[in-house]
């Protein structure tokens, strides 16, 4: 039998149900893999061996009692901005180091109730602000395809570990591409669901109108299973979607014959690396050969999506991160006055990127600038959303590369915030519009680094999105196994 | 109230000038064209100094609202103005527009067909030695001169980058129109964003009182940190300011990505978080309350 750490989520669930494997054995295999890869990756900030072993034992009981569900006994990795009761949650920030949340976020609670086994908390760019997982107060995560390169970000810890077998699947959060972009760079599947589909309760807020939790997995089918485990209305999140959920897996294996695909001109031409563009075009040709109708769709306002995002997200972040003030939790430096205490605490507790965005957001929201920056950005957001809605009148899905480049070297963009921000060029528009998007790996470039293909669908159009994603996956026939997962684990 | 002469620029050449900006003694209602010029200046001053500095006019409110409108209409769209579109404006207004418009930095001279205006944009490093001479030269040749840019604090080049000083000069050959315009441009500085080639950006000037922003955000940063972040924010805002290039007339700002209505829950008592567990995370707590340093003077 192959190493269970390499099993897919659905595959493992079948094996568990058939008693070919126990949840405890599966967890052992994953923990062994974690031990092998972590010295090279640093994908986890903390591994909860004790809790995971207990969860696996409970899962085995449920399996033997016949009360198991699709996620029972499945080892998953959680981005460390999802609060976990009794388990340190840091957001990769010094300001939250040592914070032990007194509650579980809703997604976490649902995973626990579904019997999933939480292996640990994964690294991220501090407060999910970044595109490389280098902005972590606890050190960068590396890419399992080339450990001298970044895994992308901000959910780089989750995508790196899922790519290398440190969990069967996992969860991240996507505010401007933070699931899809690192998924592309690590050669795994990453999904940003429709805004509001997964409760944000217990997701430490970055930009509330954009944040969304979503799954990371090694196949489209697995990502569906993981999303089904957490999606759904939650009274604790007033922005969560209350209507009927899409039939996420309803279109899998149905192909794309006769369906209409729009290539977004603004997201697939200028600024895209040639190797990425070539692979993207080749996949479009395969989709055409599979019977999809291909057309070019221009969304001109998308050219200003990045600009709008870098006003809206920092503005919301500056408000959200006001809660880290040294009073209720986390770091505190002493001061003569409360203001001094807060000023010192925050200056020391936040890293440079977070500080930069708080300053940017504070400025963009301040009197005299609000209309010109934040107000105008929210209008541009409306323009972008309208363009998407209008495009979906004539196509079923929109496609683009997920990331303009493949994984870049560590340190390459850390001194240049704007270059780093451009990493999210293709993913930001669907955060602004609230629509879902998925990144599916389709191959590697000439350096052997994975390339992601993005499928976007209208709000609540997950069924169509997954249907296309699955077809892209089938056509690409890409083995989502990072070199680190296949070479290093043979170590004793 | 000091009245500035045509062509006089306000503010010192070292770029601290915007604080010294006084605006003109003009009746906007009677002289709408001057009002427009004034509007631009007030708007620029407002953005630059983060406040309106002494508006010496009889219809202050009218000016302010007019300034906002003019600012949006003219300055925001200045990047899109072709030479043809500049004809309608008198010299100093044009000076202010040109000077506030980075779109023009990649050309040395803009000359409209009817000689209504000449805009000169110079790349120089030392404003103290070059700019006054340049301005005087233009003045001697009968141009109205506006020196525009932005400023607060010292203007020495940061990180060894060139400082971009935009000098805008404009002359109006139509005397009547010229006389209506008694505006002045103001002096300040512009720093060239290293990631963007000249001519790639059109937007309002970015002026950041970074120390004030940090104070608002409760971030006690060192002077070195403030300078570094200030420079980075300018670069980012240069880019982000591109949102201003889109026409959003009549567009409703997004407040929520999906249509939604109020989400209410039943008014029922439910369990809340465990008090002790919550308080266990507090850096300092007294008798089950969060503790902070004294907020009111004279207390402990």
Question: What is the topological layout?
Answer:
The complex is a heterodimer of chains A (492) and B (300).
Chain A: H1 9-17, H2 23-41, E1 44-47, H3 49-65, E2 75-79, H4 106-113, E3 117-122, H5 156-164, E4 169-173, H6 180-186, E5 189-192, E6 213-217, H7 220-230, E7 260-264, H8 265-268, H9 274-289, E8 293-297, H10 305-320, H11 338-349, H12 352-365, H13 371-391, E9 397-401, H14 417-421, H15 428-433, E10 437-444, E11 450-456, H16 462-476, H17 483-487
Parallel strand pairs in A: 2-3, 2-4, 7-8, 7-9
Antiparallel strand pairs in A: 1-3, 4-6, 5-6, 5-10, 9-11, 10-11
Helix pairs in contact in A: 2-3, 2-5, 10-12, 10-13
Chain B: H1 32-49, H2 60-75, H3 91-100, E1 109-111, E2 118-123, H4 127-140, E3 144-148, E4 163-170, H5 175-180, E5 190-191, H6 210-216, H7 223-240, H8 275-279, E6 285-286, E7 289-290
Antiparallel strand pairs in B: 1-2, 2-4, 3-4, 4-5, 6-7
Instruction: Characterize the main sheet of chain B.
Output: 5 strands, antiparallel
* Average of the residue pLDDT scores of chain A: 94
Percent of sequence in beta strands of chain B: 5-15%
The helix tally of chain B amounts to: 8
Form type of chain B: flat
Instruction: Provide the structure class of chain A.
Output: alpha/beta
The end-to-end span of chain B amounts to 49 Å
Largest sheet geometry of chain A: 11 strands, mixed
Radius of gyration of chain B: 24 Å
Uncertain ranges of chain B: 1-135, 141-205
Helical residues, percent of chain B: 25-40%
Low-confidence stretches of chain A: 488-492
Largest interface: A-B, 78 and 58 residues
State the helicity of chain A in percent bands: 25-40%
Order of helices and strands of chain B: HHHEEHEEHEHHHEE
Strand order of the largest sheet of chain A: 1-3-2-4-6-5-10-11-9-7-8
Number of DSSP strand runs of chain A: 11
Rg calculated over all Cα atoms of chain A: 21 Å
Shape of chain A: globular
Order of helices and strands of chain A: HHEHEHEHEHEEHEHHEHHHHEHHEEHH
Strand content of chain A: 5-15%
């Amino acid at each position: 039998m192959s190493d269970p750490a390499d099993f897919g989520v659905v595959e493992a669930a079948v094996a568990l149900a058939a008693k070919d494997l126990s949840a405890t054995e599966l967890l052992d295999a994953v923990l062994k893999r974690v031990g092998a890869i972590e010295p090279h990756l640093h994908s986890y900030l903390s591994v909860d061996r004790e809790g995971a072993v207990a969860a696996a034992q409970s899962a085995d009981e449920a399996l033997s009692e016949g009360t198991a569900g699709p996620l029972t006994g499945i080892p998953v990795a959680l981005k460390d901005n999802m609060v976990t009761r009794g388990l340190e949650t840091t957001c990769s920030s010094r300001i939250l180091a040592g914070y032990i949340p007194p509650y579980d976020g809703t997604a976490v609670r649902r995973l626990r109730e579904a019997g999933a086994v939480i292996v640990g908390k994964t690294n991220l760019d501090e407060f999910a602000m970044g595109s490389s997982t280098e902005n972590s107060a606890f050190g960068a995560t590396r890419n399992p395809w080339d450990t001298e390169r970044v895994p992308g970000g901000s959910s780089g810890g989750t995508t790196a570990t899922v790519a290398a077998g440190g969990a069967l699947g996992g969860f991240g959060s996507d505010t401007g591409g933070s699931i899809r972009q690192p998924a592309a760079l690590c050669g795994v599947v990453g999904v940003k669901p429709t805004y509001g589909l997964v409760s944000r309760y217990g997701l430490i807020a970055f930009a509330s109108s954009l944040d969304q939790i979503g799954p990371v997995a090694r196949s489209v089918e697995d990502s569906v299973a993981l999303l089904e485990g957490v999606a759904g209305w939650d009274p604790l999140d007033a922005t969560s979607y209350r209507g009927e959920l899409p039939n996420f897996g309803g279109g899998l294996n149905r192909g794309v014959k006769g369906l209409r695909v729009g290539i977004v001109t603004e997201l697939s031409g200028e600024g895209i690396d040639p190797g990425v563009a070539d692979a993207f075009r080749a996949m479009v040709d395969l989709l055409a050969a599979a019977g999809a109708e291909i057309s070019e769709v221009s969304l001109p306002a998308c050219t200003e999506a990045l600009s709008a995002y870098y006003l809206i997200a920092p503005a919301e972040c500056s408000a959200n991160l006001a809660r880290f003030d040294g009073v209720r939790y986390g770091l505190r430096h002493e001061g003569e006055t409360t203001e001094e205490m807060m000023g010192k605490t925050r200056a020391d507790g936040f890293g440079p990127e977070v500080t930069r965005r708080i300053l940017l957001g504070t400025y963009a929201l301040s009197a005299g600038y609000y209309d010109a920056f934040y107000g105008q950005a929210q209008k541009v957001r409306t323009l972008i959303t309208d363009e998407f809605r209008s495009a979906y009148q004539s196509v079923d899905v929109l496609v683009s590369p997920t990331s303009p480049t493949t994984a870049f070297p560590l340190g390459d963009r850390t001194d240049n915030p704007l270059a780093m921000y451009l990493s999210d060029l293709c993913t930001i528009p669907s955060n602004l519009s609230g629509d879902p998007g998925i990144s599916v790996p389709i191959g590697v470039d000439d350096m052997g680094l994975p390339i992601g293909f993005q499928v976007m669908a209208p709000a609540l159009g997950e069924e169509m999105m997954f249907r296309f994603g699955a077809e892209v996956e089938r056509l690409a026939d890409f083995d989502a196994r990072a070199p680190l997962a296949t070479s290093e684990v043979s170590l004793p | 109230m000091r009245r500035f002469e045509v062509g006089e620029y306000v503010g010192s050449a070292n770029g601290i000038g915007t604080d010294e900006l006084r605006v003109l003694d003009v009746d906007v209602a009677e002289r709408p064209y001057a009002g427009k010029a004034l509007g631009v200046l007030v708007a620029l001053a407002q953005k630059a100094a983060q406040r309106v500095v002494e508006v010496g006019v009889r219809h202050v409110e009218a000016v302010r609202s007019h300034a906002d409108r003019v600012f949006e209409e003219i300055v925001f769209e200045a990047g899109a103005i072709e030479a043809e579109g500049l004809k309608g404006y008198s010299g100093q207004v044009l000076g202010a527009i040109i000077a506030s418009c980075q779109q023009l930095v990649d050309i040395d001279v803009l000359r409209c067909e009817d000689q209504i205006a000449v805009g000169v944009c110079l790349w120089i490093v030392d404003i103290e030695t070059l700019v006054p001479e340049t301005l005087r030269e233009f003045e001697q040749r009968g141009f109205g001169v506006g020196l525009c840019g932005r400023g607060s604090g010292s203007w020495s080049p940061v990180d060894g980058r060139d400082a971009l000083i935009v000098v805008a000069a404009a002359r109006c050959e139509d005397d009547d129109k010229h006389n209506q315009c008694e505006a002045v441009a103001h002096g300040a500085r512009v720093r060239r964003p290293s990631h963007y080639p000249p001519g790639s950006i059109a937007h309002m000037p970015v002026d950041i009182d970074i120390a004030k922003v940090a104070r608002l955000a409760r971030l006690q940063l060192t002077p070195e940190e403030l300078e570094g972040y200030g420079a980075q924010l300018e670069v980012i805002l240069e880019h982000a300011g591109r949102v201003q290039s889109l026409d959003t007339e009549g567009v409703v700002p997004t407040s929520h990505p999906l249509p939604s209505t109020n989400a209410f829950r039943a008014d029922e008592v439910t369990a809340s978080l465990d008090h002790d567990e919550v308080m266990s995370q507090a850096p300092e707590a007294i008798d089950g309350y969060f503790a902070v340093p004294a907020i009111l003077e004279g207390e402990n």
